[in-house]
Amino acid sequence: MTLLTALGRKGLGAVRGTGALALVVGRTFLALPKLERRELGRALVQFGYGSLPLALATAALAGIIVVLQSGIYVQRLGARAFLGWAAGYGVLWEFGPLLLGLIMSARIGARNAAELALMQVGGQIEGLRGIGLDPFAILVAPRVVAMEVSMLALSTFTFLVAILFESVAALLTLGLPLRVFFGTFSQLLGPWDVLGGVVKTGTFGLAISLLSTTVGLSARGGAQAVGQAAASAVVQGCAAIFILDFVLTAVLAGWMG
């Protein structure tokens, strides 16, 4: 195989993948008014409630690590009083959305892709079409909505837990009183800082749901295709999160001045 042939196949695959993603986005949007509510409830429990323990544990550890790492520099610079602002800004803007996105891509993105791929190769998707039912209204739209709602709800809990553990870690490791930590946190951080984290989290959730759905519905073959779909969903989801994080950070930081 020549280099030109390999590049051509890669380019063709990228075009085919982009077209499949656009088709999933369009059909999901059209199916939203008639989505299956029981599937939505099941997906909310599975994706949101089921991910809560892992998300909270990660948020607690992330909060402690941010304080331990940033504490080294604020002590060197004699700026301990600003630790609340620095740690809160890092969690709200960067570590919170990024870690939550990566966790959810690995957990619910892979699961969603594997389930849809299993139904695709097993013929259930085609069977729904055969009896006049829309798979996007029954299976896809409820999952996309559930993943988006779960991400936004989980972000609220993870932000709160991360900040709480940050304040306790600052007290125990640096002796920083809670009133000083939350004083700079409330004085120097505003609603726009919270909004930036929410926008990032929502965008990551949408990317995870649409990419994993596209990968799952594109699966062809046997049981091997299911495993490949799950792995591909994680890789594509993580790559999309890092790209979107770069773009959103640049755009939002410039917009907010």
Automatic annotation (TrEMBL):
Q: Which UniProt keywords apply?
A: Membrane, Transmembrane, Transmembrane helix
Q: Which organism is it from?
A: Pseudomyxococcus hansupus
Question: Would the keyword Cytoplasm turn up in this protein's UniProt record?
Answer: no
Q: Calcium as a keyword?
A: no
Top-level taxonomic group: Bacteria
Report what the protein is called: ABC transporter permease protein
Coiled-coil residues are none
Q: Which InterPro entries match?
A: Permease_MalE (IPR030802)
Annotated transmembrane regions: 12-32, 44-70, 82-103, 152-174, 194-217, 229-256
The family database entries (Pfam families) matched by this protein are listed as: MlaE
A GO cellular component annotation in the UniProt record: ATP-binding cassette (ABC) transporter complex
